[in-house]
Amino acid sequence: MPPEPDIWAPEPEEYALVREEIQRAPKLFALCELERDDDEWELTEGRVLAWGLAFGDRAEVVSIDGRGRGSFCSPTRAAETFAHTAEVRLVYP
Predict the structure, then answer these.
(1) What does the angle CA 21 – CA 76 – CA 72 come to, to the nearest 5 degrees?
(2) For the ranges 5-14, 16-25, 50-59, which has the lowest average pLDDT?
Protein backbone atom coordinates (compact mmCIF):
# COMPACT_ATOMS: atom_id res chain seq x y z
CA MET A 1 0.00 0.00 0.00
CA PRO A 2 1.44 3.45 -0.92
CA PRO A 3 2.22 5.87 1.89
CA GLU A 4 -0.47 8.36 2.80
CA PRO A 5 0.15 11.80 1.24
CA ASP A 6 1.20 14.66 3.50
CA ILE A 7 -1.66 17.11 3.03
CA TRP A 8 -0.24 19.70 5.41
CA ALA A 9 3.13 20.65 3.96
CA PRO A 10 4.05 19.99 0.33
CA GLU A 11 7.68 19.75 -0.60
CA PRO A 12 9.01 22.75 -2.60
CA GLU A 13 9.05 20.80 -5.87
CA GLU A 14 5.47 19.66 -5.24
CA TYR A 15 4.31 23.22 -4.55
CA ALA A 16 6.05 24.49 -7.68
CA LEU A 17 3.82 22.24 -9.78
CA VAL A 18 0.61 23.84 -8.51
CA ARG A 19 1.75 27.36 -7.57
CA GLU A 20 0.19 29.12 -10.59
CA GLU A 21 -3.19 27.49 -10.06
CA ILE A 22 -3.13 28.25 -6.34
CA GLN A 23 -2.40 31.91 -7.07
CA ARG A 24 -5.62 32.04 -9.13
CA ALA A 25 -7.68 31.01 -6.11
CA PRO A 26 -11.16 32.49 -5.82
CA LYS A 27 -11.41 35.67 -3.77
CA LEU A 28 -13.56 35.72 -0.64
CA PHE A 29 -16.16 38.48 -0.25
CA ALA A 30 -19.08 39.32 2.01
CA LEU A 31 -22.42 40.92 1.30
CA CYS A 32 -23.18 43.11 4.30
CA GLU A 33 -26.49 44.71 5.24
CA LEU A 34 -26.60 48.14 6.88
CA GLU A 35 -29.52 49.39 8.95
CA ARG A 36 -30.27 53.04 9.64
CA ASP A 37 -32.64 54.77 12.02
CA ASP A 38 -35.72 56.37 10.51
CA ASP A 39 -35.19 59.83 11.97
CA GLU A 40 -31.57 60.84 11.40
CA TRP A 41 -30.66 58.18 8.82
CA GLU A 42 -27.65 57.25 10.98
CA LEU A 43 -26.20 53.76 10.91
CA THR A 44 -27.51 51.65 13.74
CA GLU A 45 -26.47 48.12 12.83
CA GLY A 46 -24.62 46.01 10.31
CA ARG A 47 -24.38 42.32 9.61
CA VAL A 48 -23.06 39.86 7.06
CA LEU A 49 -25.91 38.50 4.94
CA ALA A 50 -23.88 36.11 2.81
CA TRP A 51 -20.38 34.97 1.98
CA GLY A 52 -19.15 34.58 -1.56
CA LEU A 53 -16.29 33.33 -3.67
CA ALA A 54 -15.37 35.32 -6.77
CA PHE A 55 -14.01 33.15 -9.56
CA GLY A 56 -12.72 34.60 -12.81
CA ASP A 57 -16.02 34.18 -14.63
CA ARG A 58 -18.63 33.99 -11.85
CA ALA A 59 -19.43 34.47 -8.17
CA GLU A 60 -20.96 31.86 -5.87
CA VAL A 61 -22.85 33.11 -2.81
CA VAL A 62 -24.15 31.31 0.30
CA SER A 63 -26.33 32.95 2.94
CA ILE A 64 -25.15 32.95 6.53
CA ASP A 65 -27.66 30.29 7.53
CA GLY A 66 -26.62 28.11 4.58
CA ARG A 67 -30.15 27.85 3.20
CA GLY A 68 -29.80 30.39 0.39
CA ARG A 69 -27.37 29.94 -2.48
CA GLY A 70 -26.85 31.70 -5.75
CA SER A 71 -24.63 31.96 -8.79
CA PHE A 72 -23.98 35.38 -10.31
CA CYS A 73 -21.85 36.71 -13.14
CA SER A 74 -19.85 38.83 -10.64
CA PRO A 75 -19.74 39.87 -6.96
CA THR A 76 -21.09 43.27 -8.02
CA ARG A 77 -24.12 41.65 -9.65
CA ALA A 78 -24.72 39.62 -6.47
CA ALA A 79 -24.62 42.82 -4.40
CA GLU A 80 -27.01 44.56 -6.81
CA THR A 81 -29.45 41.67 -6.50
CA PHE A 82 -29.35 41.67 -2.70
CA ALA A 83 -29.71 45.47 -2.72
CA HIS A 84 -33.28 45.11 -4.01
CA THR A 85 -34.38 44.22 -0.47
CA ALA A 86 -31.77 45.87 1.78
CA GLU A 87 -28.97 48.44 1.89
CA VAL A 88 -26.04 46.19 0.94
CA ARG A 89 -22.31 46.69 0.68
CA LEU A 90 -19.82 44.43 -1.07
CA VAL A 91 -16.83 43.86 1.24
CA TYR A 92 -13.53 42.09 0.57
CA PRO A 93 -12.11 41.04 3.96
Answers:
(1) 70
(2) 5-14
